[in-house]
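To: structure subgroup
Subject: Chain for Friday's discussion

All,

I'm putting the inputs and outputs inline so they're searchable in the archive.
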Amino acid sequence: MMDRHSTRTHERRPFMRPLARPLIALLGCAMLVTVLPACQRSLFANEPSRTPFDSYDRQRGQEATSYVWDPFMQRRPNLRQRLLPKD
């Protein structure tokens, strides 16, 4: 009777193992190159209108500034003025 381990139908290819490390390194670099720029600040941060509501307010001269400076000279989003009801 033939042993299961003695008759292999698929032999391991010796050339696949040396190619695995550079391939994994290349895929890792490709992922870093595509993912890391997403962590940077946006190129168009000073976009004039972000929503139709902002555009509507800007056309009527009721636009609130996007950022204000607090007493500690740090730039903060101007949420209070932007969320107040319009006159």
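Points worth raising on Friday:
The CA atoms of residues 20 and 26 lie 10 Å apart.
The longest helix spans residues 16-35.

D.
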